[in-house]
Write a structure and sequence with these properties.
Keywords: Signal
InterPro entries: BBP2
Number of helices: 4
Shape: globular
CATH topology of one domain: Porin
Strand content: over 45%
Helix content: 10-25%
Number of strands: 21
Pfam families: BBP2
Distance between the termini: 37 Å
CATH superfamily of one domain: Porin
Largest sheet: 16 strands, antiparallel, barrel
CATH architecture of one domain: Beta Barrel
Protein name: Porin
Radius of gyration: 23 Å
Strand order of the largest sheet: 1-2-3-4-5-6-7-8-9-11-12-15-16-17-18-21
Structural class: mainly beta
Order of helices and strands: HEEEHHEEHEEEEEEEEEEEEEEEE
């Protein structure tokens, strides 16, 4: 009994010493995250079996009662250095790290790593970050706790999710910032299997009311063919990908917020091994572009209403299986999402949502299993953030 009492005293003393050291040095350890689940149903389309319909966007596509993810974020913030270890569990988390090389090979635990990076505040102006971090492009993010709408946009779903590399952030003034980065190909989280790199940049302007960010990404996403390595006839490699993205959002009053996201992504034609040599492919660049507007208004301290309207278009077969396309590989969709945010407690938010997706070509099946251009659906999500 005395040994147990002594152990408790020692643990209390060590804890006090640790906390006191943190206070003296200005460093701190934090634990945060979220848990979410949802219910989803279509109004004009099947909800069961292989015929269940859903928009081809990320995370909220399963019928009935479905799980999101558990998100646990541990961080250390020191005077000069720190780290973030962001772990995800569940279907939404698995979708977020879909391109993990270890995950695709069915080995290792890297599939639960959403972010894992360290940073160094070199000075008051420069911060270096090294590791795996969520993308700087776009308006929406992976965590449902940080999005107003629970279902996600097409632009977010087909832009990058994460990057692994090094980036440098520069505080140019109180309002202006600049970021430059060198990274693995998009969404390859643990290592680089292709030997090519992607370059990123961001110019930002922020005020107390909001901010605007102009983002760039450029690089080869699937490597170059090399005759010094074994190749199979018909093996192909795409060219370089370029994406420019504009994100902005401002509080226009105490109760009204306006946001905008616009993006353009294009990938050049690449090369093919014809069985004897590597030849350049003919054809036009392929890709997608879109624009989305966000309007949110607070009806009370505990309830807000938000509308997202998005136009998204693919060209020259830039994305397969995302929207209905014509014979030339072109197609578009207009999607409207109306969401409510009801705070039933400090940490728990309920999100009822009605969504309409309307394609330029037939893409969905209706209740009679006939082809149709539109899909209307309802969703109710619960998000607990801590």
């Amino acid at each position: 009994m005395k040994k147990v009492q002594l152990l408790i005293v020692l643990l209390m003393m060590s804890t006090f010493t640790f906390v006191n050291a943190q206070e003296e040095s200005g460093s701190r350890v934090t634990i945060s995250g979220s848990v979410d689940a949802y219910f989803r149903a279509n109004f004009n389309a099947p909800n069961k079996g292989d015929f269940a319909q859903a928009p081809a966007t990320s995370f909220a596509n399963n019928p009935g009662f479905s799980l999101g993810m558990a998100n646990i974020i541990a961080g250390y913030e020191g005077e000069k250095v720190g780290f973030v270890a962001d772990l995800v569990f569940g279907p939404r988390g698995e979708d977020a790290v879909f391109a993990s090389p270890y995950y695709s090979e069915g080995r290792g635990s890297s599939q639960i790593v959403n972010q894992l990076y360290m940073y160094w505040n070199v000075s008051d102006i420069v911060t270096l970050t090294f590791g795996n971090f969520n993308t700087y492009l776009g308006y929406e993010v992976i965590s449902p706790a940080a999005n107003f709408n629970y279902s996600t946009s097409y632009m977010f779903s087909y832009g990058p999710f994460s990057h692994t590399g090094i980036k440098a952030d520069f505080a140019l003034s109180d309002n202006w910032s600049f970021m430059a980065s060198v990274m693995n190909p998009t969404d390859l989280t643990e290592f680089n299997p292709f030997g090519t790199y992607t370059y990123g940049a961001q110019l930002g302007y922020t005020t107390d009311a909001g901010g605007t960010w102009l983002n760039f990404l450029y690089g080869d996403q699937d490597g170059k063919l090399d005759e010094d390595f074994p190749l199979s006839a018909g093996e192909m490699s795409s060219g370089n990908t370029f994406q420019v993205d504009l994100t902005t959002g401002f509080d226009v009053s105490e109760s009204v917020y306006l946001g905008l996201n616009a993006t353009y992504n294009t990938t050049s034609t690449g090369e093919e091994y014809d069985g004897s040599s590597i030849v350049d492919l003919d054809g036009e660049d392929a890709g997608f572009y879109g624009v989305a507007g966000y309007v949110q208004t607070a009806a009370s301290d505990n309830f807000s209403l938000g509308l997202r309207g998005e136009y998204f278009s693919v060209f020259n077969g830039g994305l397969e299986g995302v929207v209905g396309i014509d014979g030339e590989g072109d197609g578009n969709v207009f999607a409207v999402t109306l969401s409510g945010n009801a705070k039933v407690a400090k940490n728990l938010t309920l999100i009822p949502e009605v969504r309409l997706d309307s394609m330029s070509e037939e893409f969905f099946l209706d209740n009679g299993l006939d082809n149709t251009k539109s899909l209307s659906s309802f969703l109710l999500a619960a998000v607990f953030a801590f």
